[in-house]
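Side project, low priority. Logging it here so it doesn't get lost.
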Amino acid sequence: MTLDLLTALVAFAFVTVITPGPNNLMLMASGANFGFRRTVPHMLGVGLGFPGMVFLVGIGVMQVFDLWPASYAILKTLSVAYLLYLAWKIAHATPPREVAAEGRPLTFLQSVAFQWVNPKAWSMALSAITLYAASRDLAAVLWVVGIYVAVSVISTTGWTVLGQQMRRLLKSPARLRIFNWVMAALLVATLIPVLWPAQS
């Protein structure tokens, strides 16, 4: 991979992982509701699960859509349904004083599995492979995966810390409830480009 292409890949990966999307909004909500330490498994699930998805897409998962176009429609339907469910869960998250007894952040495996029904993750993975590993040879795919692992550390940490810092402002159950409803609404809003893609 040339230096110019590598630089472009780093910029592309950083912009795609740092911008608001389902993963980042959920990490911020988790940081606010559960704190940094309890959100670490969720962070690791995003930071390793998404690059793992990119790897599998790069070595052949894309071909499934080519061979069976209906599979993309099925995936899209499942993704929308699951994101709506997660938005409902965030909106009804447990207040801080009850978290220890009732609330639970996403586990590592839940977070890894979520990547496969995350519309933004699919869009990012397909775009990254198409643009920066078009040959789909193993070396190119591994470069894309490695860059995503690196930039994900910055993104997952940043969004979780942001949520954790906001926790100080959300000590009131009423404020936290409003925050959680806003996060849930924003999560639903991330479905707009999926359900109504821009017409070229």
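Brief comment: Residues 8 and 132 are 9 Å apart (CA to CA).
Revisit when time allows.
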